[in-house]
Structure formats: C-alpha cells, structure tokens
UniProtKB/TrEMBL annotation:
InterPro entries: RNase_H-like, RNase_H-like_dom_plant, RNaseH-like_sf, RNaseH_domain, RNaseH_sf. Transmembrane segments: none annotated. It comes from Castanea mollissima (Chinese chestnut). Residues 4-112 form the RNase H type-1 domain. This is RNase H type-1 domain-containing protein. One of its GO terms (molecular function) is nucleic acid binding.
Amino acid sequence: MGSNGWAGCGGVVRDDQGRWIAGFSKHIGSGRSFVAEMWGFRDGLVLCSNLNFQCLIVEVDAKITLLNNDYVNIVVSPLLDDCKQLLSRFQQVQVRHCYQQANHCADVMARMGSNQPLDYVLFHNLPVDVLEAFELGSTGAFWDSGAGAGAGAGLGNF
C-alpha cells in the first residue's frame, strides 16, 4: 500500500546482464498486498509474453501458491488461473521468492502505481524516480525499505 492507502503493483524486466528492458506500474485501488502482488506477477508475465521472451526467471516477494490447485478465493483464484495460463506460454520459467528488500526496484514501481492517476503505465526507459533503486539492485545491494510498501514483481529473461 502506498502512503495514500491505495494499492499498486509494479515490475521490472531486466536482461541476463541485469540491464533495463522495460518496467511497469499499475494502480489497483483498494486491496491487500497479496492481491497486489498477484496483479504484479500477472502483468509482468503479460509484458514478458508481449516481448516474446521464451525463458524467464521471476522474483516475487510474496509466497505465490501457483502449484496449489486447491486454493479458492473469489478475488485471487481468477488471477492465479491467469498466471497459470500465462506461465504455459513460456518454454522455461523459474519462480523464486525474493524478500522485498532485495526487490526494491519493483517495490518503488509499485509505490508509483499506488499514487498514479492512470491504471497502467509501461516504461520503455528507466524512470528517474527508480534510477537509484535500479542501480543498487544491479549490484546486489539491498536495504530495509520500511513499512507501507506496495507489491512488486521483478522479472528477467535468461
């Protein structure tokens, strides 16, 4: 959740050398962080599919339960179904858990999403507001970003 109480999600797509390919931020409105994380995961998969990637490493800071077919929730189940369908488009996908502190760039994108007036913004170029987090993420550095963070999904091809 952003400081305004609204939820947002965001994601970053990097190449195998850690360089920027694309990013996105999305305004979700009200909702829980897990739902925001699922939207970020879904929208990141859509973006990577649109970029014609065949192999991905996906880092998320939520415990995505994609393999649990018994999970039923009127809000989350359709998102999980979308994610499962999207995952089948790729030849190879690794989904890794990554703590929010290590996924700070996607978290910054999510905070931007929670505050933006537009539903979805696609960034072909690295936004200035994200530059520091992106550069620190490229070096493997991380820090405690504090409470109130939005959800994010870091995606990259390999």
